[in-house]
Write a structure and sequence with these properties.
Number of domains: 1
Largest sheet: 6 strands, parallel
Order of helices and strands: EHEHEHEHEHHEHH
Bound molecules: adenosine-5'-triphosphate, nicotinate mononucleotide
Keywords: ATP-binding, NAD, Nucleotide-binding, Nucleotidyltransferase, Pyridine nucleotide biosynthesis, Transferase
Strand content: 5-15%
CATH class: Alpha Beta
CATH architecture: 3-Layer(aba) Sandwich
Structural class: alpha/beta
Oligomer: single chain
Catalytic activity: nicotinate beta-D-ribonucleotide + ATP + H(+) = deamido-NAD(+) + diphosphate
Number of helices: 8
Distance between the termini: 49 Å
Enzyme class: transferase
Mean pLDDT: 92
GO biological process, one term: NAD+ biosynthetic process
Low-confidence stretches: 218-222
CATH superfamily: HUPs
Helix content: 25-40%
Shape: globular
InterPro entries: Cyt_trans-like, NadD/NMNAT, Rossmann-like_a/b/a_fold
Length: 222
């Protein structure tokens, strides 16, 4: 069983990495594939180009057991619809392997507006990263889309290639790529929100604005 974490990753941060790790452990996933999107379907143009964002994901995931960078959305033309990605993954992995599409609560809430939304559960399970104690109540369009598919048993995910929705409790770090970009733009130091290797690459490539004004990451105590 494999996990799929798509995102704009503009840039990737510890919020993404933490949910990937915790869901991998909770569901005993063989791997989590990180899928940076080429052209995000439902949002404005990212601050960094697709290759640069994928390069940051590569640095963040390097050497982490079970974390895999999957570049298939980068080379496709048009918006990076998840439906197309799932069909492409099915061609590579076959019809039987259970897929777990990992979504944050905000992405899950927007699911009814996705391309071919009604067909997604025919290709994958959906695992929602859930902040313990937070409501799992769904707005009517979302409930209509996934109602009756919700399970609390990981065994149900293993038993079929797709079709279930499961909430998994994770440590949700209050980090967003927007906030990281804003810190960089203002010349602030976003260390401890993103891996050092990612920050280093951002600085080297001059991504996201005033990065040259930032202190070096290896600055010692003075
Ligand atoms: N801190 C976080 N904790 C849990 N899930 C997250 C967190 N940040 C993002 N996600 C989830 O990771 C996936 C990819 O998110 P995305 O690349 O858009 O990052 P983001 O931080 O939300 O970006 P932005 O601030 O630019 O909107 C989405 O499913 C999103 O819900
Ligand atoms: O397929 C769609 O219509 C669709 C609409 C919105 C978002 N997505 C996917 O959801 C993931 C998270 O999106 P985002 O905008 O939060 O980075 C990313 O992989 C997107 O490609 C997909």
């Amino acid at each position: 069983m494999i996990g799929l974490l798509g995102g704009t990753f503009d840039p990737i941060h510890y919020g993404h990495l933490r949910i990937a790790l915790e869901i991998r452990e909770a569901l005993d996933l063989d791997e989590v594939r990180f899928l940076p999107c080429g052209i995000p379907p439902h949002r404005s143009v990212p601050g960094a180009d697709a290759e640069a964002r994928a390069g940051l994901v590569e640095r963040a995931t390097a050497g982490v057991p079970g974390f895999v960078l999957d570049r298939r959305e980068l080379t496709r033309s048009g918006p990076s619809y998840t439906y197309d990605t799932l069909r492409s993954l099915r061609r590579d992995f076959g019809p039987e392997l259970p897929f777990c599409l990992i979504l944050g609560a905000d992405a899950f809430a927007g699911l009814p507006a996705w391309h071919h939304a009604a067909d997604l559960l025919g290709l994958t399970h959906i695992v929602v990263a859930h902040r313990p104690g937070e409501s799992t109540e769904m707005a009517p369009p979302l409930a209509a889309l996934v109602g009756g598919r919700v399970t609390a048993r990981a065994g149900d995910l293993r038993a079929a290639p797709g079709g279930c929705v499961m909430w998994v409790d994770v440590t949700q770090l209050d980090i967003s790529a927007t906030a990281v970009r804003e810190q960089l733009r203002r010349g602030r130091d976003p260390r401890f929100l993103i891996p050092d290797a990612v920050l280093e690459a951002i600085r080297t490539q001059g991504l996201y604005g005033r990065t040259s004004a930032m202190p070096p990451t290896d600055r010692g105590v003075t």
